[in-house]
Design goal:
single chain, mainly beta, 27-stranded antiparallel beta sheet, globular
Length: 783
């Protein structure tokens, strides 16, 4: 609970694990995007009342509803009969990502005749959230019907979340200083007096699940589900052709860049100060200039082929993921003896996702040209190389048209798992295994001008067969003291976007593609009594042979670059402590500490691949990454107290501290080339190679809850009726200096050492935690 809610302020990740190490099931169906391994939480965002019906397993233990990942497995039951019998209406107000939320949920319970119905709808919205220039508008919907007949039940569940919201971006220290705000957001600007964001999400990927449950007898059951998910995720952003970089926070537009562009020190200092004062007195200079975009697009009539009109220099584009996913899953449970139980299951998932760009807004122009803007500016290129699609050269693009790239990921995954558990007087034990078969391929629909031979058509199919084994033993010293140990080992297939280096324009893949090897152990002590509970856990997990692809823009080459990393080995180890003490008279105390030590254990290898040049950069270049830390918070602590009154109200607080916060390091800066020519004793050498550790931070949260049962005042109410009020205030000290994360810029200029520290030109970007923020709700519930 602390990891999920209290620590979320700091973007805390449980044990430092990526999302792919956790499995979430909905009605027994894995809710996983196979291309990236991420859980599709957005599909049920806003459906809080529905998602409460869930079971959770944290870590490597045994669950009877799935094998899970090394981080855990979470099962949400969205079937109608599993929802609470109620009518609930609530309104919430907040100053976070959204300001308002309205939600209505109805559950019929099991009616005579075996029917059950449940539905929920909610809306969350804000004209502007906590971050300037941000907005939010989300509609969530859910409907389920279930029929029980004898030992069988058949249910149909449909849910989704259509959300449109703006994205925020990390920024540099210089940006924050000029804006005078740690929540500077470069993605918006004024258009006709109103704030408009260029970087927005528009997501709607609903899910439909048909489930059948068979209670074979009082010891065994079989649940089978079929799911279909289809919808689009659109992420908008600016694009430009025959125009300079249009981003509001482009580094060349900021004062620090003058250090590198002006050699005369006197002029440099004067002009830098003048530009700094100019921006400080007119903050709009570091926001998007929508008027300039429109004026630039209509400045002159252009002729392109046979088309005459205003050709757009700047546009808003959508990067679209059009997803279609089919899943079949079955889970069998059997208690075949008083002390023995067996669980097992199988699933098959087919995901077909098309990725393409779509023109969102011409910004006053008449058309746009489907040309490679970076190949356009290179005099080495001819007409063919400039084409995004040689099958349709010099194509005129208008609003709603596809352009740029168009390809699909065709992915299939089959899983079979089984688990045997024993429960004894002094020992509990389990052993479980899972076998997985995964294959995928890329299908290209455009023949790219730079890569005409390997961009169009089907790629090679990549196939992986993997296994995983988990086992655990718990020794019950007595009824209150337990010690336990769990162990897991196995392999996992790399994901589609970890294998293909640049799928937007070709099917080139990583060299020497390997399975990820994982070995994990956790052990600990548990004490439980009526008034006091405590737990202490040690864990150690090793990942070997991971792969990753990072994409960035290289100024010197005027080209996007894909950096293909391999031989990535990681160790995640740490200790976790938790306690819950019932002091008496309604007062309880809680405490949680998660102290991690996550670091890379190998020297990685990188290959450089140019996006707009058909040639390779350095291959198998050594990255001196050993002992560097993954980015983020590694140590989190909270102490809390809660008072529960007999008059149906409660109040409490948490004091939280976050430490060992590391900036994500750039592999480019950990090569021999990055410090070539520098003095090993110089400040430049140290600045390039050191990894930044951010300052530890303290926050305090408060919460209050009060409920009233209306039946005691209004006896004519036929159902139990309650009004519940909740108020939560986070970061009550308004600590706005809390940098939760950061990432080094992948670009580095160490050529002009006289112009200052090389890392200043391409500076690190940071995210800050919200200052004081709150969430208040009032709920009417009829049971």
């Amino acid at each position: 609970s602390a990891a999920t809610f209290t620590f979320s302020t700091a973007r805390y990740r449980i044990r430092g694990y990526d999302d792919e190490n956790f499995v979430t099931l909905m009605n027994g169906v894995p809710m996983t995007d196979l291309a990236a391994g991420r859980t599709l939480f957005s599909s049920w965002g806003g459906l809080n009342d529905v998602a409460r019906s869930r079971e959770s397993l944290y870590g490597l233990g045994a669950a009877n509803y799935g094998f899970g990942g090394i981080g855990g497995v979470f099962s949400i039951d969205g079937r109608a009969a599993k929802q609470r019998k109620q009518l609930q209406v609530s309104y919430a107000n907040s100053n976070r990502a959204y300001e308002n939320r309205f939600m209505v949920t109805y559950g019929s319970g099991i009616l005579p005749g075996g029917w059950s119905f449940s539905t929920s709808i909610s809306r969350r919205w804000a004209n502007e959230g906590y971050i300037p220039g941000s907005f939010y508008d989300g509609w969530s919907y859910y409907a389920a019907v279930e029929k029980s007949f004898g030992k069988h039940s058949l249910s149909l569940t449909h849910f989704g979340n259509h959300t449109m919201n703006s994205r925020t971006s990390p920024a540099t220290n210089e940006s924050f200083e000029l804006a005078g705000d740690h929540y500077y957001n470069p993605n918006w600007g004024y258009q006709e007096g109103k704030k408009r964001s260029a970087n927005n999400n528009n997501i709607n990927v609903p899910v439909t699940i048909l489930s059948h449950e068979w209670e074979i007898n009082n010891r065994s059951s079989l649940e089978t589900s079929f799911a279909y998910q289809a919808g689009k995720e659109k992420r908008s952003g600016l694009n430009w052709l025959d125009a300079p970089n249009q981003r509001a926070d482009y580094y060349r537009n900021f004062p620090n860049f003058l250090i590198y562009s002006i050699t005369d020190m006197g002029s440099q200092a004067q002009l830098t100060e003048e530009l700094r004062n100019l921006i400080i007195n007119n903050k709009n200079l570091i926001q998007l200039d929508w008027s300039a975009f429109y004026e630039g697009n209509r400045s002159q009539i252009d002729t392109f082929g046979t088309t005459i009109g205003y050709k757009a220099n700047t546009i808003v584009e959508d990067r679209v993921e059009d997803n279609h996913s089919y899943t079949a899953s079955t889970i069998y449970n059997n208690v075949w003896k008083d002390r023995w139980s067996f669980s097992g299951g199988a699933s098959f998932q087919r995901q077909f996702t098309e990725y393409y760009k779509q023109l969102n807004d011409l910004l006053g122009a008449d058309f746009y040209a489907d040309l490679n803007q970076f190949a356009e500016q290179d005099i080495r290129y001819g007409v063919d190389e400039r084409q995004n699609d040689l099958n349709n050269p010099n194509r005129i693009i208008k609003t709603g048209d596809k352009f740029g790239y168009d390809y699909s990921a065709d992915i299939r995954r089959s899983i079979i798992w089984a688990q045997q558990q024993y429960t004894g007087d002094h020992f509990d034990a389990f052993i479980s295994g899972q076998v997985t078969a995964t294959n995928f391929k890329r299908i290209g629909y455009y023949k790219n001008g730079v890569f005409p031979l390997n961009s169009y058509g089907e790629s090679k199919k990549y196939a992986f067969d993997n296994f995983f084994l988990k086992t655990g033993l718990t020794y019950k010293i007595n009824g209150r003291n337990y010690i336990f140990g769990n162990f897991a080992t196995g392999t996992r297939a790399p994901h589609f976007d970890q294998v293909f280096i640049s799928p937007t324009n070709r099917d080139q893949a990583q060299t020497d593609v390997k399975d990820v090897k994982i070995m994990s152990f956790e052990g600990g002590y548990v004490f439980t009594s009526p008034r006091f509970k405590a737990k202490a856990v040690f864990y150690n997990t090793d990942f070997k042979d991971q792969q990753r692809v990072i994409r960035y823009y290289n100024d010197a080459l005027a080209s996007f670059v894909s950096l293909a990393l391999k031989n990535i080995d990681e160790r995640h180890q740490g200790v976790e402590f938790s306690l819950d003490a019932n002091i008496g008279k309604g007062l309880s105390l809680t405490g949680v500490a998660s102290i991690g030590n996550n670091y890379y254990t190998s020297r990685q290898l990188s290959g450089t691949y140019f996006e707009n040049i058909d040639s390779l950069g350095p291959q198998d270049e050594l990255i001196y990454s050993e002992n560097y830390k993954p980015g983020g918070v590694q140590a989190a602590y909270t102490i809390g107290a809660t008072y529960r009154s007999k008059k149906f109200w409660m109040a409490g607080f948490n004091v939280n501290y976050f430490d060992d916060i590391w900036v994500e390091f750039s592999p480019v800066r950990r090569t021999v080339r990055s410090v070539e020519g520098l003095d090993a004793n110089s400040q430049q050498w140290a600045d390039i190679l050191r990894q930044e550790k951010l300052k530890g931070q303290l926050t305090i949260d408060l919460f209050i809850n009060k409920s009233w049962k209306l039946n005691s005042k209004y006896s004519k109410l036929s159902r139990n009726t309650f009004i519940v009020v909740n108020l939560g205030i986070n970061n009550i000290l308004n600590n706005t200096d809390f940098r939760t994360s950061g990432s080094e810029n992948l670009r580095l200029d160490n050529l002009d050492q006289s112009a200052g520290t090389p890392t200043e030109k391409f500076a690190t970007r940071y995210f800050y935690a919200f200052g004081l923020n709150y969430f208040a709700s009032i709920t009417l519930r009829m049971n």
